[in-house]
Amino acid sequence: MKSKIYLYLFLFVSLICLYLMVSSNNMSKDYAKKSKSSIEKITKLENQVATLKDSVQQSSLKVLDMQYFSLENNDDALAYFEHLDLKDPTTYVTDKLLETNAQKGDNPLVPYEGMQNDFKINKIKVLNHKWILTDFSDGKYWGELLIKYELKDDLGVDFTLVDHLLYTRSN
Predict the structure, then answer these.
(1) What residues contact residue 1 under an 8 Å CB cut-off, 6+ apart?
(2) Which of 27, 116, 121, 145 is most buried by a 10 A CB count?
(3) 62-109 pLDDT, tens per residue?
């Protein structure tokens, strides 16, 4: 009887060991799958981060390139305004130019008559202490102006049209 108990005990322990071995083997395979998929995800994320870094760097270069012709980033042109008590010359000149839109009819700086409505200046880019690039439109037709300006000591601004163009529609 004692030998049968030992035999059954040995068989029971063997079955438990077999179960633990198969179970641990399955767990290690599952862990290997999960770690492989995690590594793939991490690699994919690293590639996306690298792509985003390149994109951010390219965008930064484009912004710097676009700001090259800008009064705010031109120290030599800003030095022209040092004797005046202006915190932001770009905003001041832009506001003075937009005041020309307040007149009834077409803007006096636009050398065309509005076809749909009156031509008014929309967008303004102050290039330096002498030139402004603008966009004008009547709602359907549009064009661009190159304007020379002079900011006087009494803070008056004189605008002179240098060149202009009107885009033609081609249907």
Answers:
(1) none
(2) 145
(3) 888 777 778 887 788 888 888 788 888 889 999 999 999 888 888 899
Length of the chain: 171
Q: Give the span between the Cα atoms of 166 and 138, in whole angstroms.
A: 11
Largest CA distance in the chain: 120
Higher pLDDT, 1 or 135: 135
Q: pTM score, two decimals?
A: 0.63
147 by Cβ neighbours in 10 Å (0-12 / 13-18 / 19+) ranks as buried
Over the chain, what HEC string results?
CHHHHHHHHHHHHHHHHHHHHHHHHHHHHHHHHHHHHHHHHHHHHHHHHHHHHHHHHHHHHHHHHHCCCCHHHCHHHHHCCCCCCCCCHHHHHHHHHHHHHHCCCCCCCCCCCCCCCCCEEEEEEECCCCEEEEEEECCCCEEEEEEEEEECCCCCEEEEEEEEEECCCCC
Sequence-separated (6 or more) residues with CB below 8 Å from residue 112: 106, 119, 143, 164, 166
| Domain parsing of the chain, residue ranges | 1-66, 71-166
